[in-house]
Amino acid sequence: MRQFLRSTIGTSLLISLGLWLIGCSDFVGHGYWNIVYKNSSRAAPASIVLVSLDDAPTIGTAEEARLLDAVRRTMPRNVFFDLAVNPGSDPRGDADLARAVASYDKDLTFVVRASRLDKFTPESFKFPPKQIRGGAPLALSAWSSNFLYVVERAPYSVELEGRSYPTLSTVLAGVKPAWQSQYYPDFSVDPDRVRRVSGRDLLKGLVPPSELAGQTVIVTSLGQAATGRYFGREMVPLVMHDIAGAVALAKPLNTNLGFLPLLLLALVTLAFGSRTRQRRLKVLIYAAVVAIVLFAPAPLRQQGVILSPDLAILMLTSYGLLRLWQLRTRRIQHTSVSGLPNLLALTTSKLEVGRDVVVAVIARYEEILATLPHALHGECARQIERRLSIGSGAGEIFHSDGGHFAWTEEARPLEMQLSHLQGLRSLFSAPLQVGEHTFDTNIHFGLDRNEGLDALTRVNSALASANEAMGNGRAIELFESHRLAEAPWELSLHARIEEGLRNGDIWLAFQSQLDLRQKRVVGAEALIRWNHPTRGPIAPDAFILQAERAGRIDSLTYWVLEEAITAALELNAIGPRFQMSINLSAQMVDKADLVGNFSEIVRRRGIDPDLLTIEVTETSSVRNRPAACHNLAELRALGFRLSIDDFGTGEASLTYLADLPSDELKIDRRFVSRLLTSDRDRAIVTNTILLAHALGQTVVAEGIEDSETLARLRELGCDHAQGFFIGRPQPFEAFRGEYAKGLSRKTGVV
Ligand code: C2E
Ligand code: MG
Ligand code: MG
Predict the structure, then answer these.
(1) How far is CA 601 from CA 416, 557, 606, in A?
(2) Which end of the chain is more exposed for a tag (fewer CB within 10 A), N or C?
(3) Domains of the chain and any CATH numbers
(4) pLDDT (tens digit, 9 = 90+) per residue, 288-344?
(5) From the CA of 613, which ligand is nearest?
(6) Residues whose CB is under 5 A from ligand 3 (ion)?
């Protein structure tokens, strides 16, 4: 049952029942029957004739008596007297009327109308005076209306002070009160097509008696009679409702089955349709049920079977709207070009227990797409998806436009999972063949094993790890859950950094840079340090990254600059020219106020910017590359020296070199440390030195840990050297002491 209520059909049923409870179905029912009746116009039974005196309220009992006599002479079957009787002003007329009534014996019935709709109390009925009515029978006319005061139904009989009076329609139709207490008029009867005769003409003898002979005659006043709203039409004299009621009652069946049959039909067909796989059949079934609900009640009504379509219409409408909404979300959750579900769909799904989330990113995906005609983009994605799904055995692969593919894997032991992904990677050693185009590609994986976290977090983690893997050129990156545990620490980082700067936990270390030709220390790199009172020393890479993520890198950078200037001024004061290097975070390079702040600081501190080297690393985290290049060019124009740090590790160091007018290249220690052992690394270092010199740059080799490496670098023509072998990063006091000692020896360390 709960499952049913959660299904689309169940939900739409609940919605429609809710709408029914607050009365919305009345609107639907009203609208429906109004349309149905507006478009139907049936003639009333010819056996009912209205004799109408349009000035009735002004006529007296004498004239009423004459009219009744004239009607009687035409030999009608029976007569209903539907005029107000106001005796008292004309005693002779009163007597005449009493006589005329009596002359009908029981064939004349007095009509007694309720003064208002929905009012069934004794006070609302004005019975004709006994002295005129004599023994003539009575028929009441009393109507119930809907919320818009449109006459809707009437009781078979009205109970007044212990007596039961039949209503006019039942008497006209000659039916006895049935098991149900109400009946519903057939409003398809067109009031304009009820036969009518002018009472005046009848009095003047202008109406042939055959018009009324053998018919049911209702003597009434159409001109100024009480009126009520009639479905599909405006205000109509209430006698028309009585006739429509009689027409309804004359049908063989007169049963109101309510809303249940159509609602059940809609439910059953929708349930059946939703199980059908064939699209065409499904559409056919839905069309059939809509047609039945909309078009069956009207003809059935003609047979006397009343079905209310309101609730079924509400239910079908809610179902249709829900389905549309579902289709829309489905569309949103599908990547348009490939037709595959996108990552959003995975993030909103419920991940099964015991699954790892894997995101694969295709290297150079954008480039591949750029060379393909648009029509083949989807095919390209689907080919990758096929390889992944064959290799991983995953049922569903999710894809986002940026070349990311995600799925879940059974959570195997880590070693097995990693080798499984490595195996998957080998599937991509064969080139992709899309149309006539062939591509070599590479794939990187991000893996999230943090079961228990929500899907969104896990997919994002795996995604970030995949990007990181691609950035670092690694095959697989595992998302480390301890990063999440760091969240509170990262959030309060700003306050902690401020505190660290205040109480000296954060400080600058200086690592010397040796000129290989002059064989003396000519400069130093300022490296930030943090000895946290409880966490111990925190690696700069780590907290710089955190500070960047938390947007707290600015204050740190300016503090480093100020401290490095203080050190540079002092070192320059005690010896020859001394070059001070500082590191500039990639997050800062594109900032609009960077150049202004740097120039203000050097002016205020009175240092020649030429003595300061700014080291920048190429990382993908530079958001606005043109702004970054512009800033760096301006800093250089101000006199700062520019150095490209960690050269050879970034994705596009050569591009960076081409774009940036730099003064110095720092070869990353990854290459330097293997200079003696790896031919490839030696080739890289040798050629980087040649390249740098060809571009007029100074070369710094970092990470020198032994004398052999230093000697080899000197042979290769490297200009400057930095590394533990030359000097470890140390506090300023220690650094200055050593530097001064070196100066006095007049030679460098080596
Ligand atoms: P980097 O700019 O490439 O700095 C050189 C790193 O190599 C330093 O690590 C240094 O201690 C280390 N190093 C120097 N010689 C040797 C050696 O012979 N062997 C080995 N194994 N390592 C050596 P550190 O101080 O841990 O800094 C790491 C990175 O943190 C720096 O790399 C730099 O990118 C960043 N960093 C340091 N201070 C700052 C700063 O004030 N601002 C910014 N934005 N980044 C900084
Ligand atoms: Mg550096
Ligand atoms: Mg470096």
Answers:
(1) 55, 12, 8
(2) N
(3) 2-36+258-332 (no CATH), 48-249 (no CATH), 355-489 (3.30.70.270), 508-742 (3.20.20.450)
(4) 999 999 999 989 988 888 899 999 999 999 999 998 998 887 777 776 677 788 888
(5) 2
(6) 645-646
